[in-house]
Amino acid sequence: MFKAIVINKDDRGYRAELSSVDEANLPEGDVRVKVAYSTLNYKDGLAITGKGPIVRSFPMVPGIDFAGEVLESAHPDFKVGDQVLLNGWGVGEGHWGGLSQQARVKAEWLIPLPKGFTPKQALAIGTAGYTAMLCVMALQKHGTKPSDGEVLVTGAAGGVGSFAITLLSKLGFTVVASTGRAAEAEYLKKLGASEIIDRGSMSEPGKPLAKERWAAVVDSVGSHTLANACAQTKSNGAVAACGLAQGMDFPATVAPFILRGITLYGINSVTVAREKRIAAYEQLSQLVDLKTLDEISHEITLEESLKYANDLMAGNVRGRLIVDVNK
């Protein structure tokens, strides 16, 4: 038996609870893992609170990422004792995830724990940091250079935003952070933001084309914020979109694309090929100051993840929430 957060939907309604689970009830997979750390991401918040249609079957264990040690393997790529990491692949949505002391998953969803990181450090980065790195890689592939001008990061005080600021700043970019939390200005500047703007200037309906300002954008918000970011991006600039905190809609026009030639990159962190995942973590190992992880992350227990899920949905969480599933 082991502990896990379990979500059910039945005659008693929709609920998430800390429960004892029999190992025999783990879903199918060829690798069983003793989980050390998971995290609480936006998707997990939606799943636990029921505020979004994230969970596709019940019962479900949330947690879209985890790190831990292989307990049992029927796959030649992994052996007992190996340290492994998982981000995405629908765990916590359609397959039991990481907010649990054990997990059983497909081997192809795992990568070896990246060199230079402990399990806790890898999860301090987690899906949010890994997604931010994929956004930065898209801008790098586009050819964006620090000399091109300012880069906007929306949802700046969240997990993806915090890491995007850190990574872009380390690469020499001038970063402008958009946030609705004025109290986080000092935190964002410490991460590397040169200027803080209120999200209200981005989140209301705007013009199809606005004054050009951004050489590039990392957006985790969507809706009007993404539309305005595109409208303000310089000619031939790039926007990397990876989230929908404001909404899934995109109330924009084609004007920025056909009149300024900007490029909108959709960042899918869920089903990325193993080689690209490993490349992302290689860059993260070079760019992330391990001391910065303490600034960005806060450790909580498995049971506390139930409370913090509501705080996350209310926009009251800064940076990353690491879950020690064994506490």
Count of DSSP H/I helices:
10
| Global morphology | globular
Kindly give the count of domains. Answer: 2
Radius of gyration: 20 Å
Q: And the CATH topology of the largest domain?
A: Quinone Oxidoreductase, Chain A, domain 1
**Tally of strands:** 15
Proper CATH architecture of the largest domain? Alpha-Beta Complex
Average pLDDT, rounded to a whole number, is 95
Q: Which structural category fits the helices and strands?
A: alpha/beta
Give, in order, the helices and strands.
EEEHEEEEHEHEHEHEHEHEHHEHE
The major pleated sheet works out as: 7 strands, mixed
Secondary structure: helix percent: 25-40%
Verbal overview:
It is a single chain. The protein has two domains: 2-113 and 292-324, Alpha-Beta Complex (Quinone Oxidoreductase, Chain A, domain 1), CATH 3.90.180.10; 127-266, NAD(P)-binding Rossmann-like Domain (Rossmann fold, 3-Layer(aba) Sandwich), CATH 3.40.50.720. Strands 3, 4, 5, 6, 7, 14 and 15 form a seven-stranded mixed β-sheet that branches. Strands 10-9-8-11-12-13 form a six-stranded parallel β-sheet, sandwiched between helices. Strands 1-2 form a two-stranded antiparallel ribbon. Helix 1 (42-49) crosses helix 10 (304-313) and helix 2 crosses helix 3 (159-170). Helix content is 31%, strand content 28%. The mean pLDDT is 95. Strand 9, helix 4 and strand 10 form a beta-alpha-beta unit. It has helices at 42-49, 119-142, 159-170, 185-191, 200-203, 223-231, 255-259, 274-287, 290-296, 304-313; strands spanning 2-10, 13-21, 31-39, 65-73, 83-87, 102-105, 110-112, 151-153, 175-179, 193-198, 214-219, 233-241, 263-266, 297-301, 320-324. The two termini are 15 Å apart. It is α/β, with parallel strands linked by helices.
